[in-house]
Amino acid sequence: MAWNKEVAARDFLPIEERQQLQLRRLQHTVQRVYTSVPFYRQAMDGLQIHPSQITSLADLHRLPFTTRYDLIEHYPLGLLSVPREQLSRVHASSGTRGKAKIVGYTQHDIDIWGEVCARSLACAGLQPGDMLHNAYGYGLFTGGLGLHYGGEYLGVTIVPMSSGNTQRQVTFLKDLQPTALCCTPSYALTLAETLSALGLSIQDLNLRCGIFGAEPWTDALCQQIEDKLGLQALDIYGLSEVIGPGVAMECIQGHQSKQNGRSLHIFEDHFLPEIIDPVTGEALPYGTEGELVFTTITKEGMPLLRYRTGDLCTLSTDPCACGRTLVRMSQIKGRVDDMLIIRGINVFPAEIERILFGFSELAPYYQILVDRERTLDTLTVQAEIAANRQPPIDGQEINNGDWMNNEQVQRLQRRVSEALSAQLHLHIAVQVQPPGTLPRSEGKAVRVIDRRPT
């Protein structure tokens, strides 16, 4: 398949025309899963809903939800809607919580995946002749191959670096002069740090934009990446269960205009979005924050009805500067299952990140440690001082025990702790570490370490 004007025009369809397409595809998908997936047939029968009763997009809310636990319960491939031998590929989620969520793809699914990733790269302003340095991991994780397909579909030159071997990555960024970079936001910081350590600067690169995703990231982290790599940092959203990267993408025009905050266009001719109350499951109106839900309406191998992503955001139909008529989602505010409950107070890691990045003395690396002392939960934030703000410690090595006794370090710890505690209404201990102390990420960053007994 190749990029052409017809594919490019799909983002700009009149809303009524797209809605007619969505309804036809939804009806076809519901009929398919009802007849071929016992799980969905039983769920729909339990709700007394038949495929013939789906006569409008409003009927979407009558369909059953699907959760990650349903995928795990039917592990490995119990939700397939095609015979197993018709699959071209199997991918799996990169999560570490118990069993992986395995997803089967037909060749049709892979073609659709390439299309939506190509449309994502077009949102970033890429076109044939650009070079894309792809530092997402290749393999069971969907990031690397998804953007690879999108680049080939669009006609750009791909540098399939995958993750790791950071010094070599920087060498290729300098020598090949790619115009775009794909990786996780945390790995973009690692690349920037290595660039500086090798005596190079953004003047040695030719990067125009970066496509970053696979983990939540704040506006403050976006600014750090843009400053350190000299590019415009754009957000891409996806999840393996739905298709992989390419479900939604921030456009370059919207990013530059900062119109209504940062948001991403959802390719809703393939993925129908909803927002629900994460507790009651009630559908919420656009503009209200809640849990993001997707129904896939073109997938063959493993279509999903009303899949609860666990991600918190809002949806909007406000016009965008780029002219696309697609529904937009805000950046992810956090995850339902990532929310920490400490002494009855809800704490999101993204809120901690936002506050930490307000301190110029700190580097953009941190970890959150959750523990329990007797019967009380505790929360400690480990941050890292910026290399150019390192305080003197009587000429001694900064990694010895004297570091934590340094007056400047103690004063900074108190300031950060007070800022966190004031915003989150919870006492939070802070440990400021020497430069280079905290782990660097080559993929998804591990931000929270929960040591509480289960």
Automatic annotation (TrEMBL):
Catalysed conversion reaction: 2-phenylacetate + ATP + CoA = phenylacetyl-CoA + AMP + diphosphate
Gene3D superfamilies the record matches: 3.30.300.30, N-terminal domain of ligase-like
Keyword line: Ligase, Nucleotide-binding
Molecular function per GO: nucleotide binding; phenylacetate-CoA ligase activity
Classification via InterPro entries: Adenylate-forming_Reductase, AMP-bd_C_sf, AMP-dep_Lig_C, AMP-dep_synth/lig_dom, ANL_N_sf, PA_CoA_ligase
Chain ranges of the AMP-dependent synthetase/ligase domain: 93-294
Pfam families for this protein: AMP-binding, AMP-binding_C_2
One GO-annotated biological process of the protein: phenylacetate catabolic process
AMP-dependent ligase C-terminal domain boundaries: 344-452
The keyword Nucleotide-binding appears for this protein: yes
Pathway assigned in UniProt: Aromatic compound metabolism; phenylacetate degradation
SUPFAM superfamilies in the cross-refs: Acetyl-CoA synthetase-like
EC number(s) recorded for this UniProt protein: 6.2.1.30
Quaternary context: Monomer.
Protein purpose: Catalyzes the activation of phenylacetic acid (PA) to phenylacetyl-CoA (PA-CoA).
Stated family: Belongs to the phenylacetyl-CoA ligase family.
This protein's name: Phenylacetate-coenzyme A ligase
Organism encoding this protein: Dictyobacter aurantiacus
